[in-house]
Design a protein that fits this description.
The chain is mainly alpha-helical. The protein has one helix and no strands.
Amino acid sequence: MGTIVTAVVLSCIVGLIIRKMVQDKKSGKSMQCGCDCGCCSGCGHKE
């Protein structure tokens, strides 16, 4: 029973993380910004 509960909780957490990443991608945010603002359309860095 404990294994099932743990699996469900972890599945929910992973699902929420993926959902947040998709929302960020759609809004133009990216975790993979290399600070090269010339090739990044949604970059928020100021140089």
